[in-house]
Write a structure and sequence with these properties.
CATH topology of the largest domain: TIM Barrel
CATH class of the largest domain: Alpha Beta
Largest sheet: 8 strands, parallel
Number of helices: 13
Number of strands: 8
Strand order of the largest sheet: 1-2-3-4-5-6-7-8
Order of helices and strands: HEHEHEHEHEHHHEHEHHEHH
Distance between the termini: 51 Å
Bound molecules: zinc ion
Radius of gyration: 22 Å
Shape: globular
Helix content: 25-40%
Length: 360
């Protein structure tokens, strides 16, 4: 790991009698601010996590523990985005519905094998139709589309590759949303230098750097995604991670005004909201019918910070992962009606299998 001694920090280290200078990676200042605090461990209203990857937690052996944790958080339902397709999907849906009815809905995925086969589009659309008939509530597209997914000639498959059109159209026809994760934070594609806000993360995990010689620009990939949304106005898309516009909500709003079929969720981008509580509050009120609660990585204790940012009026409190954010969080103090829409009402409107009555 590279070392970037910081003059002032080196001075502190000396003052503490330490012999080596402190680096930014090592620096762990403790929050000394004393203000009223209202930390949360449970959401104010029951909620559904629409960006769920429960993975092994939904095995028969671990399900009871997961349900206990969900209960403690007030998580009434979870969307399992990793349903796969065909027999595997059907089995997962049947098992979860039999064991824990009303707790999970399952999204299907696409099989990219044989993507060069001229029949791939028709087969994949038919597979999705069958998967929905077998109980899938949506389609999840992972970020490999547009980044690492290649055709037989080694060419990157673009997000708006026409081969996918029949699939997007089928989702619209079957009235299930497509939760789509495209690209990564724009700063992963930006110059890796001292001005980059994700410098720490890109230093700790160099494999996340997306240099221009290896990847298309962020604007290119995101532009492809938006073209899909525009081309398929009858299909609802849930643009994951605030579409990577958490640091530019004004532009996200403009895009959502232009594309009424674009919804979004807040998984893994909470730190963007927690640093702009006043503007984010106004924005969430304006777009209250279009945003859903999502978390992505399943880690119970991390939800607490989500509740606190969304619900509280607290100031300058800690976030849970330093490499996302070296700054502190502030609460957005969202009105109850906006919270209810975020927590379950919007999901119940566009995701089959999620009923508002389940959240009373
Ligand atoms: Zn995901």
């Amino acid at each position: 790991m590279s070392r970037y001694p910081v003059g002032a920090l080196a001075f502190c280290a000396l003052a503490l009698g330490q012999t080596q200078s402190l680096t930014f990676e090592e620096y762990r200042p403790k929050n000394s601010l004393v203000v009223p605090q209202s930390p949360r461990t449970k959401a104010k209203f029951p909620f559904v996590d629409v960006h769920g990857h429960p993975r092994s937690m939904i095995s028969d052996a671990k399900l009871p523990q997961l349900l206990k944790e969900m209960e403690a958080l007030n998580m009434r339902m979870m969307v399992n985005l990793d349903g796969r397709y065909g027999e595997a999907l059907k089995k997962t849906v049947e098992r979860l519905n039999a064991k824990v009815p009303g707790k999970f809905v399952v999204f299907a995925n696409l099989d990219f094998a044989n993507i060069d086969d001229p029949q791939w589009s028709a087969k994949s659309a038919a597979q999705l139709e069958q998967d929905v008939k077998n109980g899938a509530s949506g389609l999840k597209i992972y970020k490999n589309l547009g980044m690492d997914l290649k055709d037989g000639k080694g060419q990157r498959i673009k997000v708006d590759d026409p081969r996918f059109d029949p699939v997007w159209a089928m989702a619209g026809k079957m009235k299930v949303p497509v939760l789509i994760h495209t690209a990564e934070p724009a700063l992963f594609f930006a110059p890796y230098d001292k001005f980059n806000e994700r410098w720490l993360e890109l230093t700790e995990i160099p494999s996340r750097r997306r240099p221009p010689e290896k990847y298309p620009s962020w604007e290119t990939i995101i532009g492809e995604q938006h073209r899909v949304f525009r081309k398929h106005p009858k299909t609802n898309f849930i643009n994951a991670h605030l579409g990577w516009y958490g640091n530019n909500l004004g532009e996200l709003g403009r895009l959502m005004d232009e594309m009424p079929n674009m919804y979004t969720e807040i998984g893994a981008v909470l730190a963007e909201l927690g640093r702009q509580p006043r503007f984010a509050r106004k924005w969430f009120i304006r777009y209250q019918d279009r945003v859903m609660f999502g978390k992505d990585t399943y880690e119970p204790v991390e939800y607490h910070t989500y509740f606190r940012v969304l619900e509280s009026n607290d100031e300058y409190f800690d976030y849970y992962r330093r490499r996302h954010a070296f700054w502190q969080m502030y609460g957005m103090d969202l009105p109850d009606e906006v919270l209810k829409k975020l927590y379950y009402k919007n999901a119940a409107r566009i995701i089959p299998g999620i009923k508002e009555s389940n959240f009373q």
